């Protein structure tokens, strides 16, 4: 049992709380039973798993599978587990996983592109929502919050493993690979030309979403074939970007589920 927070393994895992060390070591943290189970279900590799005795007893049916999958498992004290986690009340397990290679999503019908997103909760919500709505890929600008941020993973509720995600050095250049009329590019704008209900989402579509405060850059808006707005009550200026993503993505799902049957 690891009992000291000064243990070399514990110290190396604690460094992964910081983005610069996650990038340096190409690793990230999975905190909590739900994320660890989601990783195993998705076939995502785990390198190290640290757990408490009480956690192993509580999940006795799941624990053997974890031992067979991870090359290194370590039982730790509650104090050490608390030091390993970024959450205030960890549930007893923390795992280290390798960062996945930057494989571009292969979306053909519905994708999301997000520019300069700062809040990890928003990104996790977009990932969770995207998977639920049938989104096939997510492109993220390099100046956005890192997709392996612990809060992003938690906010995704385990769906992080199911949505191919690509961090792009230049979104404009990435966007140039899609040429209308083969795909429509929908920019979500407060001053859009058409409300999102009137868009034909039966077409292959890429939805562009911007920064929480500033919205989309004009450069990306200029590349859109459709500038969409979300109708709101008088006096309301904007919506949370995660909510906007949900509305547009689920409108696409609604149309593709019901209108395609007409």
How would you describe what is shown here?
This protein has 262 residues and is α/β, with parallel strands linked by helices. The chain folds into two domains: 8-98, 60s Ribosomal Protein L30, Chain: A, CATH 3.30.1330; 110-261, SPOUT methyltransferase, trefoil knot domain (Alpha/beta knot). The chain contains eleven helices and eleven strands. The strands form two sheets. A seven-stranded parallel sheet has the order 7-6-5-10-8-11-9, with helices on one face. It has a four-stranded mixed sheet with strand order 1-4-2-3. The longest helix has 18 residues, at 241-258. It is elongated and about 60 Å long. The relative contact order is 0.14.
How many individual domains?
Answer: 2
The main sheet orders its strands as: 7-6-5-10-8-11-9
Q: How large is the share of residues in beta strands? A: 15-25%
Mean pLDDT: 93
Could you give a short account of the major beta sheet? 7 strands, parallel
Q: State the secondary-structure class.
A: alpha/beta
- State the total count of DSSP E strands: 11
Question: Low-confidence spans: pLDDT under 50, at least 5 residues?
Answer: none
Shape: elongated
